[in-house]
Model the fold of this input.
Amino acid sequence: MTTLIDAGLVADHNAQLATRLEADYEALGGMLARRGQDIEALTALAQRFAVAVPSWGVGTGGTRFARFAGRGEPRNVFEKLDDCAVINELTRATPAVSPHFPWDRPTDAKELRQKADDLGLAFDAVNSNTFQDQQNQEHTYKYGSLTANSSATRAQAVKHNIECIELGRELGSKALTVWVGDGANFPGQHNLRGALERYLDSMREIYAALPDDWNVFIEHKLFEPAFYATTIADWGTSFACATALGPKAKCLVDLGHHAPNTNIEMIVARLAQFGKLGGFHFNDSKYGDDDLDSGSINPFQLFLVFNELADAALREGPAFKPAYMLDQSHNVTDPVESLMNSAVEVQRAYVQAALVDRAQLAELQESNDVLLSAQALKQAFRTDVSPILAMARVRSGGAADPVACYRASGYRDKVASARPAKAGASSSGIV
Ligand code: PSV
Ligand code: MN
Done:
């Protein structure tokens, strides 16, 4: 197995922080014990947590105005995997990568799988891309893909999704995520019902190509690129489509894809209740689909999402396993740092949600004790579980402080000289 960050460097880094960490861990352990909670059980829980990294997230993103390239950006899927491996080596919370095709299409899937294996990585859901035209593509997606009026365009988009399934099989993936930007920019542009009927017809063909042990995740998004009526705009449409398609179809919740102030945790509860919660794209936002780092704007919302997930896990048992993935665009930060930070923030919300005494909360709710019910959640959210997360990382072979250790490793400088920027290349990152 190849490691990209020197194990000795990580050990030195951890040794430097050990005294402080142990003191903080002990203090937190004492406080939790007084609340009847076992810090060791929580640390073990944190060690089991995993969230997948989006291959496109390791490139520098941009907006429709500009993209400011970063140093040492990965130029192909192999280099992207290296960056993803660094994130996992230091956080020990991201053992899988979610690839995007055709951006990450390998010439040899076996070679790519071997490379991932060697880096200790697996592949999570594969993503199709029919929201932009590729070079030498026969039919344009300018007016839609799976919903297009043209049957030839729809067939081309269906074929691409089926190719993604094939590639995903070779990589050991078990799910396909379908997000389409299809929609209308002007009233009258679309027959709203007709577009959704065409979407379902196309999705039925894709669904039919799924292996028995696969799922297809339907990702909804309110707007962009369509600014008037997006075909799969909300969780209701996503749920209706997943239901119409069958048991292998589930809904994917990207935290940035809702109207401001939408109660996302309630959507999570609804989808879990009806067995249609497939997975997540975690990120944060202030205004729209900003794709900011997870937990950077509204960490309480992230906690409340995990509070619903903890409730669902208790009700559904081990079969309840939504896919956790990040989906962010890093425009002004080092993508490796942002992704490490986000993985830790999602893990933090997961552990904080486990602090809630669910039996006690149920009693408070039963007796209509509104104030103490709210306080039960607030107390968990206010608890700083950082020592648990750091201890979990150290015990799993990661870094007590992933960003500090990453900076000390000089990885970015190394890749900056090994990966000179290619003129005009922007194969990585969201542009
Ligand atoms: C769309 O905004 C999205 O959230 C989908 O998941 C895409 O696959 C991804 O971003 C990258 O464009
Ligand atoms: Mn997404």
About this structure: The chain has a mean pLDDT of 97.
